Amino acid sequence: MADKDEDLPRDAKIVKSLLKSMGVEDYEPRVIHKFLELWYRYVVEVLTDAQVYSEHASKSAIDCDDVKLAIQSKVNFSFSQPPPREVLLELARSRNKIPLPKTIAGPGIPLPPDKDTLLSPNYQLVSPKKRPSQPMEETEDEDVADPNPSQEDRTDMQQNPQQRVSFPLVKRPKS
């Protein structure tokens, strides 16, 4: 194990000692590489921001104040403080003053009203009203719909408007 520690770069040894100081004893070796990648990416972003701040201030080199400003802006952008406990308690009190809606207690899981579920009728069937006075004769010519209905057929359609019928879905018993 000591040979492995000697082969590691200095930064990897620092990450390993940080993990050990936090009580992390068992981890995969790739964890160290991931922490190093995160660490390097963070440092590059902070130094790039510090360079931008230095150039904006017309300085020839980055100084400590630029780095502090870059770190502070990164912290302000990345992390947010939760509201104080008193504010949260007041919000909870005001929210809890409103009672919950009454539920219809029944066996099983309480469901929302039928209109909001898939249990209510969910489709409509349009069927024309048929005239019982005329007998229906089946011929081969009637199988094809007439694209140009006669004037008599048009008035018949206007007198007998289409009727909408909806059907609820019913579960069939399994055989």
Please characterize this protein's 3D structure.
Residues 99-175 are annotated as: Disordered. This is Transcription initiation factor TFIID subunit 9. Pfam families: TFIID-31kDa. It comes from Acacia crassicarpa (northern wattle). Keywords: Nucleus, Transcription, Transcription regulation. This protein is mainly α. It has a domain at 2-91: Histone, subunit A. It is 46% helix and 5% strand. It has helices at 2-7, 10-21, 30-56, 64-78, 85-96, 151-159; strands at 124-127, 163-166. Strands 1-2 form a two-stranded antiparallel ribbon. Helix 3 (30-56) packs across helix 4 (64-78). It is elongated and about 95 Å long. The mean pLDDT is 77.
**Beta-strand share of residues:** under 5%
Residue runs with pLDDT of under 50 for 5 or more positions: none
End-to-end separation: 67 Å
- The total beta strand count reads 2
Number of helices: 6
Main sheet makeup: 2 strands, antiparallel
Structural class: mainly alpha
Percent of residues in helices comes to 40-55%
CATH topology annotation of the domain at 2-91: Histone, subunit A
Radius of gyration based on Cα positions: 38 Å
Q: Which series of helices and strands comes N to C?
A: HHHHHEHE
**Overall mean pLDDT score?**
77
Subcellular location: Nucleus
Organism: Acacia crassicarpa (northern wattle)
Main location: nucleus
Region (Disordered): 99-175
